[in-house]
Amino acid sequence: MTDERILQRAFRPRARLLQLLGDQLIGSARLALFELVKNAYDADASEVTITFTKLGTPDAAISIRDDGQGMSLDVIENIWLVPGDDHRERARGSAVRSPRFQRLPLGEKGVGRFAVHKLGDTIRLVTRAEGQPECVAEFDWDRLLQETYLTDAEITVRERAPEVFSSGTGTLIEVTRLRSEDWTRGTIRDLYRQVTSIASPFGDRGGNFEVKLEVPEHPEWLATLPGLRQLLEMAPYRFEFDFDGSRLHYRYEFVGIPGVKLEGRISEREEVHFQIPPADEPDDLDPIDEPRPKRRTRMTADPSTLEGIGRVSGKFHIFDRDKKVLPNYGDTRFLERFLNQNGGVRVYRDGVRVYNYGEPSDDWLGLDLRRVNEPTKRLSRNITIGVVDLGLAESPGLQEKTNREGFVETAAYERLRRVVLGALWILQVERNLDKERIREVTGGASEVPQGLAGPLTELRRLARENSVGDVLEPTIRRIEEDYQTLRENFARSGVSHAGLAIIFHEVERGVRVLTGSINDPSMTIESLRDQAGQLQGVLETSSQLLRNTTTKPGSLRDMVRTARDLSLLRFRLHGIKLECPALEDHGPDATATFASGLVLGALTNLIDNAVHWVKVRHPEPGERRIYVNVIPDYEGGPAIVVADNGTGFLDDPATMVSPFFTRRPGGSGLGLYFANLVMDLNEGRLVFPTMDQAEVPDGYDGAVAALVFGRV
Q1: Distance (Å, rounded) from C-alpha 477 to C-alpha 515?
Q2: How many domains does the chain have?
Q3: What is the band of 291 on the pLDDT scale with cuts at 50, 70, 90?
Q4: GO cellular component terms (predicted)?
Q5: Confidence tier at 10 by pLDDT (50, 70, 90)
Q6: 616 in a domain, yes or no?
Q7: Which of 60, 319, 454, 491 has the fewest CB atoms within 10 Å around its CB?
Q8: Which of 458, 397, 430, 382 lies closest to 241 in space, CA to CA?
Q9: What is the spatial distance between Cα 154 and Cα 151, in angstroms, rounded to a whole number?
Q10: Is 454 helix (H, G, I), strand (E, B) or coil?
Q11: DSSP character for 648?
């Protein structure tokens, strides 16, 4: 028989636990004040005032006063003094709203109130609930920490006749013996920017809620701070969107720029097929032996996208920091400083900010990273002031982190990011149309491709991490050298920057596919080596744009057959029905003179566009249709026609064939430009006829494009 001891004991938390809650769960003193302001919001306050007094002296103090519901002695004893109490989480889960402003509580975990212990060692709490005496509680951490266990660290709470809140309810917290003496002009101004942004500048979905910050001994510290609403009027581009799961409604407005003679423009639409970036970016343009598992093909958002998130809306003001535009707004340093401090995309739930989205250190949408290779086309945080609005009751899938620095990065959070990025893509497209108009007026330069440094650096990193660096490094080095040589040759030959961008587009796409393959555990070393060789071959193929490519007569039917054969796998993967009369017995044919390699690239670009847009309009396979045919005589020459039953074109032909223009999220905007350039080089043209003009049968009501050749 063995000796055995069985004990049953309760946890005995140390008294220092409360101070640790404030220290470890709250990142900074400024964030601690932010949490206390959120508590005031939960208490149904309409106003909260933060006051700093006697800063720089031993008597420095901070007070936080609100006009909320206040607390009774019972609430203090059974809720406020109970770490981790879940009454707000339960109220939120049961959709119990506050009586005055019908708010759902922001707090969940019952620890936010301990943020006050991050600020100082002596705390005095004065509070009064409706119809109750005033309650006063005092915390002296020097005394409390002398006790070993939390159960021995007693706090005295007394009731008295109202003195501070004699004519109403509310809570006052006074903090002395401050733990941080770094309350300078700079930190106070940073705090002002943070706490005044808790309530959305674009609306009051959470009811009236105002935050005031006062430094009586230094009023000049806050006197010159810019007001957000005042400066928003200086943004030339405005955008609003609302997505309910079924339809996206958006309104874009270009209001003009002082001193630039350019009319404003408004674009307002309702989109049934709202494109969002896929979770795993598909790239089926490269030959593969069989479908890859778990490849995302759905291109649009639907009600399931908003599961656990609820309706998503947003408002954005976009500024222009172009050197030929910014001086038109007067004090450029003032505006740039404002944008550097306030730029970004904030998130609000029930009109109250979710910290720390939109802070200078936060780029939750990856805007700056996406802008690296297209600095004049993509949005960045330092020109964007935007908010995303959510409803608290409708977004249970978005849970805030315990340290109050954003949402837990769940699947719902990722879907929220994709919805916002999809809306921002539309804004980006509309803005770029006006940016081009501005460049035409001011004489600004078009964008120059930035090169492959970023994508290749990422490829190298992943190759090393996956132990295939030795296999891929020789090819990566060769790609760098060949690309640089091509870039120099382009410069000497006088070919446009857009021509160079085509090569960058093709190579960057290959880099992206190879990067994805490295992360695919099913890919063998030999497969990676083959893909790297194909990527190197892209540079050789692209260099045809620099050579006098040989043209010779050829059959358009044969060209269509080659393009069809290259695309058969894609059609099967995506459930697309192809109708191609030219390849039927006795189908139409014509002879034209062209450089076959370039024209094949142009035709496959048209097919690529058709594949994308039928997937957008028809998320599920079954109704996707593409039509390809040869017209022996179309307005003076033979033509190859590509039509589909997708969403159709929204823009005029001149815009569609301009470099870098695209309504496809993540697209380069070079497909139609490339096709147009190829037809120019082959003495033909790219046109966009009607379905009747292109002799397209019934059943196709999307886009139609035609490659028209000269006669032999």
Answers
A1: 15
A2: 4
A3: very low
A4: plasma membrane
A5: confident
A6: yes
A7: 491
A8: 430
A9: 7
A10: helix
A11: -
Amino acid making up residue 551: T
Q: Which amino acid is at 28?
A: S
Closest CA to 43 of 172, 196, 213: 172
**Which residue type sits at 447?**
E
Contact 79, 69 (CB under 8 A): no
What token pair was written down for 293? 């598992």
Is residue 5 a part of any domain in this protein? no
Q: What is the largest CA-CA distance in the chain?
A: 105
In this structure, the strands spanning 576-579 and 624-634 are parallel
Q: Please state, in angstroms and rounded to a whole number, the distance separating the CA atoms of residues 265 and 254.
A: 5
**Structural domain span for residue 251:** 231-433
Q: Given this model, what pLDDT does residue 513 score?
A: 65
Q: What is the CA radius of gyration of the chain?
A: 32
Distance between CA atoms of 148 and 153, rounded to whole angstroms? Answer: 8
User: In sequence order, which residues have a C-beta less than 8 Å from that of residue 63 and are 6 or more positions away?
Assistant: 49, 50, 51, 53, 172, 173, 174, 175
Spatial separation of the C-alpha atoms in residues 16 and 13, rounded to whole Å: 8
End residue of a domain, out of 190, 225, 260: 225
Q: Which residues contact 184 (CB under 8 A, 6 or more apart)?
A: none
CA distance 126 to 159: 10
Starting at the earlier edge strand, list the strands of the sheet with 704-708.
Answer: 576-579, 624-634, 637-644, 704-708, 685-687
Helix (H), strand (E) at residue 88: helix 87-93
Tell me which residue of 458, 453, 509 sits closest to 483, measured CA to CA: 453
- CATH number for the domain including 134? 3.30.565.10
Instruction: Match 């020109």 to its residue by tokens.
Output: 383
